[in-house]
Amino acid sequence: MVSPTLPRLIFQDGPLQGEEIELSQEQTVIGRDPGVDLRIASPVVSRRHARIFRQNRRFLVEDLGSSNHTYLNGQRLEGPLPLKSGDSLQLGGAVRIVYLAPMDDSTPSASVDQTRLDAAPPNQAQTVLDIDLTPPGSAISPVLVVAVAGGNTQTYKLVKERLSLGRSADNDIVIPSPIVSGHHALLERTSAGWQIAVLPNATNPISQQGNPLNERHTLRTGDVLRIGSLDPGSMVTLTFLYPGETSAHQEARQIPFAGQDRVQIGRDPSNDVMLEAPTVSRFHALVERVGQRYRVRDLSSSNGTFVNDRRIERESWVKAGDAIRIGPYRFVLGADQLVEYDETGGLRVEAIHLNKWVRKDLNLLKDISLVFNPREFVVVVGQSGGGKSTLVDAIAGYRLASDGMVRVNDINVYQDFAAIRDKIGFVPQKDIIHMELSVYQELDYAARLRLPPDTSPQERHQRVMEVLQDLDLVHRKDLQISGLSGGQQKRVSIGVELLTKPGLFFLDEPTSGLDPGTETALMHLMRRLADQGRTIILITHATKNVMLADKVVFLARGGYLAWFGPPEEALKFFDQYRAERDRRARPMEFDEIYAILDDPEKGKAEDWARRFREHSAFHEYIVRPLEQRGYGATGLSTPPPLQVIPFPGQPQHLDLQRGQVEAALPPCASFASCRRATSRSCPVIALA
Residue 518 in contact with residue 360, Cβ under 8 Å? Predict the structure, then answer.
């Protein structure tokens, strides 16, 4: 019997459709994991998806870092929000739940000071500053998080109608950085929402998604703005957050079947659902309703259609909760609709308990776990013999770890590599480009190999020009590659990988051999590419531009993780191990970390790994994010069981190896065409 004094959840669809669940505990964790309080066995639900908890006589709901997000009355949750009777919850857009408060509930509406506001980006120390009193009728104010590279992070509540931003003390938001002008920009509340405008006298531009703002820009929650210069490590980051609002790149689109039994998906505008992605075929897949059942058919696409991360041969029956992946898009089947998720805005990476045993007495990676968030720029540095390339190769699925697991947006890279292959770009240290070709020819030939065969010459030309624009190489497109500088040649190598718009990008020492100025420019380019919607992991020996990154991985000799977290926090962590006279003489710099790790009096590599595991950053940036996703904490004292992973020669990795062979072939040839050429060798192009 349902108690009138307890709140209830009524499931409108999903595995528990029609059931009523009473909230009799102070906290109820909802997810797919068998150990949670309320289990929903659906692939659209994360292991630990959300929680509902009591606070001050009322119940609040909070997303726990789920892959498919939690929505309250159609708005994505950015932080804990109070529930009222009749509220609609959606888990991943496919499991709908109605919250009913107790019949005698007289819980007052939440006031500003009662509702906790998760204003700052995760894992950043911050100071919250009130600009003014909250205006009447406003429940929660948006905030602007200001982070100066190498300095402190401050969070400002935007509660005035108009605020000035700049270096001078008379601004509402004062940013103490030499790259910020005295009066740099204005923030203003309008009928269209909050807008930012750069003032005419500002010296350095403000960029959003890597592009400078030349006119007023309407802000959406999650927008990241940068003020930068070509000075090494100089950058100011502005993050706009508005709890309750859905960010532009995370909105879910509902595609109902009402009135139709077929939904055709592809790149061509004539499809029912058009997907603008170069890896999607013109007519890619068809989802059709057959009676009370649903079936997905692959329409001979180039890169395949995946159901629950497994590629279908021709067709597959699907049920509510199943996930269909087409290029960088994911569709979740509901009761009578598809819910589309756009994953072009960067990918989340979870590396869990990675070890690399090459023989019984030699392990190159010592139980390393890491979490990279979407759109993060992560730099991997460390001592010689620290395993930088080994670690990155293991995360990319290029050379597998001997045990452990890597997940990218919940796809197991080692078991389902084919489902993630076209979302990964990998730039090796040695450039694989053809010096005799022009920049445009190189990218055009690469596009012929990498884009679907049904890509028209006009589409291919447009994509090549977009890449040239991103890399600032339009003015060099007709020059022979051999005549370019080292930095420009490296940009061409990067451009080859950018053609397919990968959401996850790995680079192995791209700054090696470059002069300091070119190195700085390339690191700023990586920062801009990450802001455009890519998760970037870059190995480097150079450290002067590390402050441009969101996170830094520092490996000690022997494959020990000595640090993972924001670069400014790394400096504070290692600074405490410097001599007192050194701390007084000069500020801490990244180059000094190498000397500290090399000093045997300060400890061995395993000592540094232990110190990091005892530091709050280990819990903040690794343990807590993994626990929220249902994975246990890492630690050398409790190694995980060996994971069953495929041998690199299995089909999905043969595909990757084939791509590497193709990259080394003449531009006109593909692996398949050379294999078919039994009576003649592959043609070679001679340029007049």
Answer: no
Average pLDDT over residues 561-570: 94
Give the CA-trace dihedral at 610, 616, 622, 624, to 10 degrees: 130
Helix H or strand E encompassing 243: none
Pairing of strands 504-508, 535-539: parallel
Query: What is the distance between the alpha carbons of residues 586 and 576, in angstroms, rounded to a whole number?
Result: 13
Q: Considering only CA atoms, which of 85, 145, 153, 88 is closest in space to residue 117? A: 145
Angle among Cα 16, 20, 24 to the nearest 5 degrees reads 115
Contact (Cβ atoms closer than 8 angstroms) between residue 632 and residue 626: yes
- What is the DSSP-derived secondary structure letter of residue 681? P
β-strands 211-212, 185-190 pairing? unpaired
pLDDT on residue 35:
85
CA-CA-CA-CA torsion for 311, 315, 320, 322, nearest 10 degrees?
0
- Quickly state the pLDDT bin for 649 (edges 50, 70, 90): very low
Homologous superfamily (CATH) for 349-628: P-loop containing nucleotide triphosphate hydrolases (3.40.50.300)
pTM (2 decimals)?
A: 0.73
Q: Residue 136 half-sphere exposure, CB side, CA atoms within 13 Å?
A: 0
Please tell me which residue, 273 or 123, carries the higher pLDDT value: 273
What Rg value do the Cα atoms of the chain yield, rounded? Answer: 26
Half-sphere exposure of 397 (CA within 13 A, CB side): 33
pLDDT tier at 600 (50, 70, 90 boundaries)?
very high
Class in CATH terms, 143-241: mainly beta
The CA distance from 220 to 246, in Å, is 8
- Please state the domain extents for the chain: 8-100, 143-241, 252-342, 349-628
Which SS3 state, helix, strand or coil, does residue 670 take?
coil
**344-362 per-position pLDDT tens digit:** 877 999 999 999 999 989 9
Q: Is 103 left (phi over 0), alpha (psi -120 to 50) or beta?
A: alpha
CATH fold group of domain 252-342: Tumour Suppressor Smad4 (2.60.200)
Cα atoms in the Cβ-side hemisphere of radius 13 Å centred on 626: 23
With contact defined as beta carbons under 8 Å apart, do 211 and 218 qualify?
Answer: no
Number of residues that make up the chain: 688
Give the rounded distance of the alpha carbon of 644 from its chain centre: 26
**Residue 65 or residue 650, greater confidence:** 65
Residues 307/290, Cβ–Cβ less than 8 Å: no
